[in-house]
C-alpha cells in the first residue's frame, strides 16, 4: 500500500487511521467536510493531502480517490441522518472504489449483531439486529460484501482516544475536566469494552495490508472488559480523589433524551449495549494475526485526557 484515502479523517478513528498510515510511510488523502478542522489535525503532516468534500456526492469521492490503493471508510454520520444517508453514502464509496480499482476497508460497529444473549460475539454468528440502526448496519454490510472490489469490514466496540469526541468516554471526561462529577452512560457493574483508537487503527491497517484479510468480517475487541466502577477508580487516580461518576441507566437516558436533541433521542434504542455485556470475541483475529499488544486502559485514558487538556 503506497497511497490510501481515509473518509471521515477528522473523526476519532479516522484521525487514528491517518496517523497510523503515515507512521508506516503511506501517503494519505484525508477526506472530510471541514477543511479548517482537517488543517488543524494534519496541516503539518508532509505525507497527508487534505481534501474537503461531501461523501454524499459520489463524484467528489471518486475524484479524491484517484490513484489510491485502499479506501478506509471511517465516516460517522449523526444518528438522525442514518435513515436518509447511510446506505446512499456507502454506495457512493463502493462505486468510487470500484471506479478507481481500490480496495475498501470499512470501520463498523456492533449494532448488526443485535443482543449477545450472554455470549461473546463471533463473526460466524448470524446477525439478528432488533433495532432500526442495527438493521441498517446489516444492510450496509451486505452491500459492501457484494462490491466488485476486495473489501473487509472491522467491527469495533465503543471508541475512546485522542480526537474521539463523539463518544461516551469523551462525554464523561469532558465533564470531569470541568467539574467534580461526570456522567457515565450505563450501570456501574456491567462489563463493557472500549477500544483505544490507536489500537484499533493499528490492527485495521495491518489487516488492510494483507491480501487474505479481504473478503472477511473482523471483530476487533478491546484489551479487556471494564465496569463503571473500574473506570471511576482510574479517574480518581488520574484526576483526583474528589472526582466522582454518576451512572446514567437506560431509563435515565430516555428521560434526558426527551429534552435533549434528536441525536440523543435516536440513541435510546442502542442502550441495550450499555445495559448488558455485549462483548466481541477476538478468536478469529488472534488466529490470523497472532497475539497483538493493546494499550492498558490506564495509559489510554491518560493519553486521552492529555490530548483533551491541550485542546482547551
From TrEMBL:
InterPro entries membership: NAD(P)-bd_dom (IPR016040), NAD(P)-bd_dom_sf (IPR036291), NAD(P)-dependent_oxidoreduct (IPR051783)
Q: Which Gene3D superfamilies match?
A: NAD(P)-binding Rossmann-like Domain
| NAD(P)-binding domain mapped to chain residues | 8-113
Q: Which GO molecular-function terms appear in the entry?
A: aldehyde dehydrogenase (NAD+) activity
> What does UniProt give as GO cellular component?
cytoplasm
Q: Which PANTHER family match?
A: NAD(P)-BINDING DOMAIN-CONTAINING PROTEIN-RELATED, PROTEIN YEEZ
Protein name from the UniProt record:
SDR family NAD(P)-dependent oxidoreductase
